[in-house]
Amino acid sequence: MQKTLEKYRQPIQSGRVNPLVHWDGLTSGVVFDPSRDDVPLEMMAFHAYRLQDGPFTIQTGANEYAFVPVDARYEVEVGKQVFRGHRQGGPFAALPESSSAEAVYVPRDATCRLSGTGELVAFAAPANGDKPPARVAPGERPNLRRGTGTWHRDVITLFTPDDVTTNLVGGETYSPPSLWSGTPIHVHDLDDPGRSQSDHEEVYYHLARLTEGKWGPYGVQLLFDDQGLDQAYMIHHRSAFAIPGAAHPVVAGPVSDMLYVWALAGTSSALAMMDIPEFGYLQKVAKVIDQFEADRGPAVLSAAQFAQAVREHDLTDFQAKVCRLHLAERGFVIG
Fold first, then answer.
1. pLDDT band at 184, cuts 50/70/90?
2. What's the N-to-C CA distance of the chain in angstroms?
3. Residue 11 in this model has a pLDDT that exceeds 80
């Protein structure tokens, strides 16, 4: 948001405030508290829970909450209503073909109880009204392709003020290895509907499919504008990133595909993202790429061909998984 960005631009640029936090996967509770001066947010809160350490009781107060299971069997109790789900295998289980994303909404002035096993995250922000508790089940929202070429990704929007919430907008974005998201770059820093821009803060929670290795998977998260903010951050599995405003593209590294769970909250309920005009031509480039890729069609490899290549190059099972991800991204279909 404009207010948040103006407050935190220089502290972030100077290193006095760090928008990146790595959740350890063990310590349940608040990751980003917007009331703290060292958190570059004014209204968005982010929580993460290891459900087997619960149950956890949350008083929502003036905030509404959206709970998103990462890899969990969960139960969210709100008054006399109980919402249950099981996101088995985690967020990558069916990707890139389809998404298993789901969410539970809890309104303001409510008491909710979380229980179960596995990992679940939550976003909270001041409510703009009253709506009933609700669950968005897997498959209820479309998983849509966005972008093309080296910046294509799949986006599923789980909740918005047009359906479930009164303020929060959120979902998940999947990025194949080495590809960009948030491109062409956009901003939502100013309440300016005439230029298709709204005033929203945002939080990303990054995840990787392949987490083996001493160094592990990695990507790069950028945060920059044309007024002096110019930062880059290394991201890993379970990296949470607070976005007060400015452009915020992210790229997955070549050793794993990645996904981020995201949510926004703002001064109004109408989210509008303004593409930076300087980079708008990439939309035209995308149309050219799509045209030629459609004319070319998919390249088909048999399972036997792929297995032979794995043997010839002495790839381990893990390395073969990475190779398969890259081949899929290059348009190869392995039968």
1. confident
2. 47
3. yes
Question: CA 252 to CA 232: how far, in whole Å?
Answer: 13
Q: What Rg, from alpha-carbon coordinates, does the chain have?
A: 20
CA–CA gap between residue 319 and residue 329 (Å, rounded): 16
Helix (H) or strand (E) holding 294: helix 282-296
- pLDDT of res. 40: 98
What is the domain partition of the chain in residue ranges?
2-287, 298-334
Which residue, chain included where needed, has tokens 């909710």? Answer: 112
State residue 323 phi and psi, 5-degree precision.
Answer: -60, -40
* Cβ–Cβ < 8 Å for 103, 66: yes
Within 8 A by CB and 6+ apart from 33, the residues are 39, 45
Model confidence pLDDT, tens digit, residues 202-256:
999 999 999 988 898 999 999 999 999 999 999 999 999 999 999 999 999 999 9
From the DSSP assignment, how many helices (H) and strands (E) are in the chain? Answer: 4, 24
pLDDT digits (tens, 9 = 90+) for 266-304: 987 689 888 898 888 888 888 888 888 888 877 888 899
Domain 2-287 has CATH 3.40.5.10: no
Report CA-CA distances (Å) from 313 to 1, 255, 257, 309, 316: 50, 17, 22, 6, 9
Strand partners, 233: 221
Phi, psi of 93 (to 5 degrees): -55, -45
Quote the pTM value.
Answer: 0.94
